[in-house]
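RECORD TYPE: inverse folding
INPUT: structure tokens
STRUCTURE:
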């Protein structure tokens, strides 16, 4: 599994808990202090050290170096304006049957408000449109929290 935006480790803990016991989380973040805090949070949650691979760096520089078709899930929660590019990378990284997920898909209700045209809101709308129009994907929008937009990569 790949996580784009380790943050302080909250999402990583839940992703790791939802994976098989031998599943590995590859977590990318530009901020090494956040990655240190994430590692600490995983340890405090009782997760074995070897289950997380922390890669420091900008997502759009790191993701192209990861292996094609090698991941079951890509969870995106870093730069909103880069979401459309994360989708392109995720489609390459996911095996058939894998899922890409974007946090903040409702973006504090701005996505549904046509008067909001700022670059972050526009990028989140754009990734939603791209997923909806892509025949390779089955979309699902979960209205939990600030919205979780998921898409399953069809097996074909
Ligand atoms: C909203 S936080 C992620 C929160 C995390 N999902 C959690 O639950 O703790 C966004 C993270 O993206 C990271 N970030 C910002 N720009 C980035 C970039 N260009 N590439 C990778 N990570 C980036 C920030 O350092 C921050 O840790």
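DESIGNED SEQUENCE:
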């Amino acid at each position: 599994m790949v996580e784009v935006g380790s943050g302080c480790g909250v999402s990583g803990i839940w992703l790791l808990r939802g994976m098989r016991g031998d599943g590995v989380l590859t977590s990318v973040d530009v901020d090494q202090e956040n990655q240190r805090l994430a590692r600490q949070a995983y340890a405090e949650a009782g997760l074995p050290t070897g289950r997380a691979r922390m890669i420091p760096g900008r997502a759009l520089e790191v993701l192209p170096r990861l292996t094609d078709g090698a991941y079951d899930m890509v969870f995106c929660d870093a730069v909103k304006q880069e979401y459309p590019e994360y989708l392109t990378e995720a489609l390459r990284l996911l095996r058939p049957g894998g899922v890409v997920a974007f946090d903040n898909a409702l973006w504090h209700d701005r996505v549904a408000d046509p008067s909001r045209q700022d670059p972050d809101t526009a990028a989140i709308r754009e990734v939603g449109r791209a997923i909806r129009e892509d025949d390779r994907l089955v979309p699902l929008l979960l209205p939990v929290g600030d919205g979780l937009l998921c898409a399953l990569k069809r097996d074909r």
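NOTES: The chain is about 35% helix and 25% strand.
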